[in-house]
PRD domain-containing protein
Amino acid sequence: MNNGAVSVSNTATPEQIQALADRVLGQINRLFAAQQISPNPVQQQMLASHVKAMALRSLTGEALPDVDADLFDEISPASIALAQQVVDLFGNLPVEEAWLLSVHIDVARENQ
């Protein structure tokens, strides 16, 4: 399947996964800088790990387990919107990915 952003296949090499994750992390860093969001080193590591897992799911089509939207009621709308921008960079991930990613963003916003 090719949606114009990421080509999905049943296999993806570690190099392909890392390259996509690195590209998205670069874009996340620019988005964070524009909004003066400064994750600490531990938060950066957790974000990098999550984005790499997102890259894997994007490239292989692997699905997330069911996620309950109610768990994210306390996440700020701004963090959810920024997370959705990031998810949109992949072009083929579901909204649940944005909900999960928004937690990293909300926590990093607390550093301001």
